[in-house]
Design brief:
Shape of chain A: globular
Largest sheet of chain A: 8 strands, mixed
Oligomer: homodimer
Largest interface: A-B, 67 and 67 residues
Number of strands of chain A: 17
Strand content of chain A: 15-25%
Strand order of the largest sheet of chain A: 3-2-1-4-14-15-16-17
């Protein structure tokens, strides 16, 4: 059955247009047409003010949302750092059960959709029970993630994680890490089972693979993982923290991005998460590879990681997208704003990531659309026939957009506004956010509140 | 007449407490008592979940809100910078009239109150009509600011600005600057008239003085301004942009903060806005002076100014507060989060501004309470008898606060939440935000929308 959207203003591949009718059939855009005015739109069309292709959120660890607001203290007698945060994560890991993971993920996906994201790359490493005991179904946790995606209608690219060792020296897993660990055979089995569960979510759902990092996966395993699922996305954390850069340099005699580019055929299947610490050659090498740099600016600021070298990377035609990672804040406009603001503070300049022709907001949003779609292996990211109808409608009456038009609408949203401007979201044609609220929010929020209150009380 | 608030949890000077009753008479807190439980609270008390002293927003240029979202492009053929932004501001200045300034300021103050601020320091330099023609009342624009404050109930410290020259070399004013300019006699007259208008706003309203910057005010004028209003706050922009640091170094042979500390008796009356670029001696000198560093993290990021040296400054017991400056975003939690996040990205660490005992959110909020109150010369910043009842109540049912208690409530608000958590705000006892909305929002927003749409259409 066809459904139609009628938009007063829409961002099409060749620019802004007025009075645009978008037809969707089975989740895909099947036609885009322009009418003389609103009266010619079909009576049953959903009418919106400003229609944009919706972003993919390319990097999420849904369960980490449970920790939001609980890790902003300094460890006793120490200069707090990333590693203190990591210890609290491990304390959570002694408790989290599958039902809690499903409840948290569902709330996280509701909030992503309400923020204007249509899809998510779930980088999923919490496979087993406490102590590393496998569930009856080794892919139990992936099944829970699939259930959360199905409940919320978000487009998912599930990324089961291979976490094979406790450090780049090949030491064994210990403590909280035991919940993540698999050997290669176990990982292949788990990924097959996860893919079967994910397939039931919807025709647009996908499964990729995620070797966790150069700390957690050795060269041999990395090579094996690459050929595990032909043509599927491959995501990996890289060069997030300086300590990690020092560790990889010590083990392999090269910094992480340099080392990875040497040993693997990094291409458009790859998404390198963070890539914060790169020298000029690494920046240009990553750009040339065609891979996506998966930036998570809010989390990277919260964790004190550092600032990505955006200006050089875009100058070398590098591809990028954004992810909400730890989900400490799920806020699309703020995510993009934080990315650009970091560049400004670093470069002591304005509009650093703006193109020569387009505004900063338009350039950033366009880059994140293309990079997000590529990273998720998802035919989306444009209002274009044949691809998934991942769409977001903004409120033309929002105060932050008053008197603005064209690219300035994106600037107004990203730099002066917030996600309350988002009115409607479609994910592969599923109209799950209406008038700013997810259609199943109340039920999902109640389950989340109960899970989170229990979890936090136990700490 | 006495009115009462009953709070389930409240942040008192010696820490968190439960079942707290706060009595207000004529805008001041007159008693604070603890009851055994909620049943003993007076029936007519306003019941709230979490009660905090409300922050002062120590630096605002209300009219700049009109530009939000319009300046995120790069100038043709140039690396955009602060100075491109400044040119657009001057284009606005060819158009803005007093009624528009009042409409914009009223909306800005509504949003500040809704964000959880109880008071504002309005750094006011737009005195005259286009071309520098004085209005019939030379303080016309201050009268408009007073009217906006009165309409909204915000606590105001009005800071008329002395803008005497076009650069630190003493050159004459030109172009858009003509609307700002006064000589010393004119400034004294304007300030007296402004103070008379501000006095009518409320018993808590104040007038200070603001020599604009070392670029716009010479040494002689600076000295004269300091003695113009005994005991009143003195605010000044300083060391925001590198170009400014270079200019002052060229003119006076010293960087701005160093130069100011040499020539003036900078003490607790002073608030130095930005103070972004300081070496170690300047950082320590400013801390020793007892003045407040007025930080505007969102604006400073948007303008690419740079990152304040927060860790060294707090280590030297420096005082700080926050302001929304350009008002591109009026967002209290985000303002504090942006301050800390900048420190984290700079220092590659977490919880940089946290105290040894308190969490980051508690430390930041506490510092901004004390610094904001001092900078505005306003007896406020604590739930304490005898001072103005500037109070904010948070929604205990907010999802971002679920399962949190004590200092973590502030961390949850600042790092994981946003200002939708704010339920009620009192400014000197005026209960102007109820259930998250300002009591006069609809009327004020309509006037703002009309003003902004007209203004932007003319550009």
């Amino acid at each position: 059955m066809a459904t139609d959207i009628f938009a007063k203003r829409a961002l099409l591949p060749d620019g802004w247009a007025r009075n645009i009718q978008v037809r969707m059939v089975e989740g895909r855009i099947t036609s885009i047409s322009q009418t003389k005015d609103a009266r010619q739109a079909p009576a049953e069309a959903v009418r919106v003010d400003i229609l944009l292709p919706a972003l993919a959120n390319l990097h999420s660890h849904a369960f980490q949302r449970a920790m939001a607001g609980m890790t902003e203290t300094r460890g006793p007698g120490e200069q707090d750092s990333f590693w203190t945060w990591r210890r609290l994560m491990y304390r959570f890991l002694e408790r989290l059960d599958p039902a809690q993971v499903e409840a948290i993920a569902a709330q996280v996906y509701v909030e992503m959709l309400e923020a204007g994201y249509a899809s998510v790359g779930e980088f999923h490493y919490l496979h087993h029970g406490p102590g590393g005991v496998s569930y009856d179904d080794p892919a139990e946790m992936s099944v829970r993630i699939a259930a959360a995606a199905a409940k919320t209608g978000i487009g998912i690219t599930h990324l089961p994680v291979l976490y094979a060792q406790g450090g780049s020296d090949g030491r064994a897993l210990a403590g909280g890490q035991l919940r993540f660990g698999t050997d290669l055979d176990g990982f292949a089995d788990l990924t097959d089972r996860a893919a079967a569960a994910i397939t039931t979510v919807g025709p647009d759902a996908k499964t990729g693979v995620a070797p966790h990092s150069l700390r957690a996966v050795g060269v041999e395993a990395l090579t094996a993982v690459q050929s595990l699922r032909a043509d599927a996305p491959i995501h990996m954390h890289i060069a997030e923290q300086r300590a990690e850069v020092v560790e990889i340099l010590g083990t392999h005699g090269a910094t992480p991005v340099k080392w990875l580019l040497e040993i693997m055929d990094v291409d458009t299947r790859w998404c390198l998460i963070h890539a914060t610490h790169m020298d000029r050659a690494e920046t240009e090498g990553l750009a040339r590879s065609g891979a996506v740099a998966g930036l998570c600016p809010i989390t990277e600021a919260n964790l004190g990681d550092g600032i990505f070298n955006g200006a050089s990377y875009l100058a070398a035609d590098g591809r990028l997208g954004v992810g909400s990672d730890s989900n400490v804040r799920i806020a699309l406009a703020e995510e993009l704003r934080t990315l650009e603001n970091g560049q400004r503070l670093q470069g002591k300049a304005r509009a650093v990531l703006a193109g020569p022709e387009a505004s900063t907001g338009r350039t950033l949003y366009g880059a994140a659309l293309a990079g997000g779609a590529q990273a998720l292996g998802r035919a989306s990211g444009a209002i274009e026939e044949g691809i998934w109808a991942d769409l977001v409608a903004l409120d033309g009456d929002a105060l932050a957009l008053a008197g603005l038009d064209g690219d300035a609408l994106l600037d107004g949203w990203i730099f002066a506004g917030d996600d309350t401007i988002v009115k409607d979201v479609w994910s592969a044609g599923r109209h799950v956010v209406r008038d700013g609220r997810h259609i199943a929010r109340d039920r999902i929020e109640a389950a989340y509140r109960s899970a989170i209150t229990d979890l936090r009380a136990e700490l």
